[in-house]
Amino acid sequence: MNYSIPPEQSRSTRKIALKSRGSCRGFAVFQNRVIVFESHLELMVFFMLTLRTQTATVEDQPPAVTYRDGNNLRQHTFDFLVINHDGSRMYVAVKPAKRVERSGINTTLRLIAAQMPPRTATVHLVTDADFSYAARYNATQAFDFLRFPVKEHDEAMAAFANQITTSVRIADLVAASGLGAMGFRSIVRLIVHRVFEPVSPRERITYDSFIRPVLVT
């Protein structure tokens, strides 16, 4: 993050009130642009979307999609629009699992997907049932560490990938690097960049986690 350049304002088409007694609302900064969210679940999904290797950028609250529901024309504003590096697009709706049925969101998304022109975008619903607490933890940690990369540290830690032939505990690799906590932060970034991979990907990434180099095929 470059503090000398103020972040661009959110491009959200639906303005939200940042103060709410009933929900978690706020903003994050991604690619030096403000991204707004209306719940902690939205924030977690946003983190995970930004960490996908295919993701080029993420738009918050993109322009509403118009669709036909019987004889009625309706509009739906998705929580996120993901634009991938290959140019493909994904509309993402976020909803707590316990509210999916009574909200009717599945019906809405089916109608939109059926009426969307071919190759325009895909439509997805993400709920809290789609990922674990460990996935939330890892996404939050990775997003934070990626905000302040240190090229020299990442290069130093990446050099270990050519020296490791088996799995290794992160704490041992950090100790060998002499970088302390900065070495740990670098390893997490390198996991995102597919230089290393966790041996147990469904667990939280900590100093006690085991990692191995990603084999290039």
Report what the structure shows.
The protein has helices spanning 40-50, 100-103, 105-115, 133-146, 151-158, 170-177, 181-192; strands spanning 26-30, 33-37, 55-60, 65-69, 72-76, 80-84, 89-94, 122-126, 168-169, 196-198, 210-213. A hairpin with a 2-residue loop joins strand 4 and strand 5. It has 217 residues and is an alpha+beta fold. The mean pLDDT is 91. Helix 1 (40-50) crosses helix 4 (133-146) and helix 4 (133-146) packs across helix 7. The two termini are 33 Å apart. 31% of the residues lie in helices and 24% in strands. The protein is built from seven helices and eleven strands. The strands form four sheets. A four-stranded mixed sheet has the order 3-6-7-8, with helices on both faces.
Essential attributes:
single chain, 217 residues, alpha+beta, three-stranded antiparallel β-sheet, 7 helices, 31% helix, 24% strand
Strand-and-helix sequence, N→C? EEHEEEEEHHEHHEHHEE
* Percent of sequence in beta strands: 15-25%
Biggest sheet architecture = 4 strands, mixed
Helix content: 25-40%
How many DSSP-defined strands? 11
User: How large, in whole angstroms, is the Cα Rg?
Assistant: 20 Å
Number of helices: 7
Task: State the distance separating the first and last CA atoms.
Answer: 33 Å
